[in-house]
Every structure is written in structure tokens, then in C-alpha cells.
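pasting Aminotransferase class I/classII large domain-containing protein for the record, 364 residues
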Amino acid sequence: MPQLVDQLMTMTAELLAPPHMDGRKVLVTAGANVASYIIAQTFIDPGDYAFIPEMAYPHIHHVFKDAEARIVPVPSDDGGIRPDMLREALEKSSDGRRKLMYIVPHGDNPTGITMSENRMRELYSLACEYDFLIMEDDPYYFLQYDPQVSSSFLSLDTEGRVLRVDTFSKTIGAGVRLGYITADQPFVDKLTTMHSFIMTHASPFSQVFVSELLRCLGHEGFIEMAKSNAKKYKQLRDVVLQAATKHLTGLCEWRVPNGMFLWLKVLGLKDVTKMVNVCCSKGLLFVPGCQFMVDSTQPCPYIRMSFSLITPESVDKVSTGGSEYKRRVKAIYKHQTNIYISLPLSRPISFILKFCSIYSHLIK
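structre below
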């Protein structure tokens, strides 16, 4: 839909101010997952190297495996992918088939990390030095909770190496199934051909809906709407952090996240798989950290918790019922495959308290 493409081009230019925007182009896709898939299918040949964070959105593992890439997980710190470790990985891939780095720069899934502009510049410099592309998947751009909004790889892209993926799933709704790629025009021309092979085009209904929304709100109005949504998510995050500080201090470690997820390191456990299974049986849904690793069979002490659908009232109901439940929980955990928790929950209780109860028995 040409009108929507023009709107997205204008909004990207105003919001991110990429260099050489007149040489770039937008391709509308049926969501960000489709966008990442067609990028991999277009630019990765079997045997090419794809560099990703050591903990990454599981979908991207399947995307690169389907493209027959050699996936290289790179260690991260609190600032994101470590430049020194990326350089080491690049040096080891010495046959010259370094093709692409995948990154979520803001509110990363699962870690919640947001990269600083300095870190982005360091990684972009390596892309220029070793001649590879950057797939910047940025669904949580508008869910940055710090006063100073972080930059974008596209904003730094002086050499035309960045393929930026955006989506409306976190600003309008997941059901819209609409995303878009911004990249240099020759890249987008190739991506358009691949996209037509896979699914012709994104939903015309969704394209018209989003285009009309942007027309009615204007770019500034849309950005204000997104910021308003971010304030609500920040409130939920802050409530969850308060509850975690109150109930999980000494049991888990975490960083203050952007985005929608709290990434918890469970202390005292080498692997959380059994604990997650027990939590699930009690109505607590966590994703075990191993699911974000290239080799998901390896032990991992991390869990990912989403706070996007909770209410502040449900997080911290520290009641008599909660204390009673905590006293009555019993577990059997000695060289057994299954863990049995007695006495079903009869009163409302926060997920933090239930997690605390289960955890305290798992480490015995």
C-alpha cells in the first residue's frame, strides 16, 4: 500500500533520522517474525555465520537454522552483546563467511537490556571492520522507561549495513500482524521478491487500518499514544520490581528491565526446569532460560517472567491466606523426577509468594 509506505518512511525519518534516508526504502510485512524470516532467506547462504546474543528470542534460532546458517551465540553483559567477545567470535570465523548479526537493542527479549549509543557504535564499528550486516529487530523501541531514549543502529548506519525491523504488535496490538523493514533500496528490492514468494503481501485490511490510524493521529499523535502505553507498562514493571525486592531478595538476581520481561537468575539451582514445571502446575507461567539458548538441552538457572498482562492488584496480595499457604506447602525433592506439592491454593495469592514457596523447597 503506497500510502502506508510513505507514512512509515516519513515517521522513520522524523523519529530516527537515519543518514541517507533518501536512499532507503520500506517493505511492509505480516509482522516482525515474517520480516526476520525473509531477511534470513534472502541474505544467508548455507554455511554462513549468524551472530546472536547467547540468550535470544527462540524464533530467531529457527529462522537461522531454516536458512542453514552457522549460529554463533555471543556472551553479553548488562549493556548487551560484548564487543570484545564478538570480535573473538569474528576472528574464529576466519573463512570469511560472516554474514549477519541479530540484535534486539531495546528491552531485549528475554533479558530486558537496552543498549547505550556507545555500545551500538562499538558493535557497528565491528560490522564495518568485518563486513557483515546487522538485523535490528526493535519491537520494544517504545517501551523504554528511562528519561533519555536510546538511539538505533539505523540512526548510526552510514554504510547501509542495517536492516531494521519494526512492528505494531506492541503499540497497536498483536492481532494487527503488521511489521516493516527499513533498509537500503537494493536490499529492500531483494526482500520484496522473497516476500512475494512466501506470502504475496501483508493483510490489506491491516494495512488500511494502520494507515488510517496514522492519518488520524498524525505521527506525533501516534508517538504520544505509544508513550502513554509505555507509562502503563512502566507502572506494572515498577510494581513487579517492588514485589521482587520484597520477596525474592536473596533468592534471585535481576536487573531493572525495559520492555515486557523480568529476567531472573535463580540462586542455588543449576537448572530451573523442574521448578518451572511445578510453577506451571500451580498457575505460575515462566519460561525456562534454556529455551533462549541455541542448545536448549543445557542447564540454565534463569527464568523469564512477563508482566505485560498482570494488574498491580494481583502482584502483591500479601494476605493471611498467602502466609497460610506458604506454611502449608510441602515438597519432595530428593533424586526424583517429579515434585509433588500438597494442598491446592484456596485463596488469592501473589505469584511472587507462590514462587517463593516452591523455590524454598526445591533448594533443600
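The first strand starts at residue 24 and ends at 29.
The first helix runs from residue 2 to 16.
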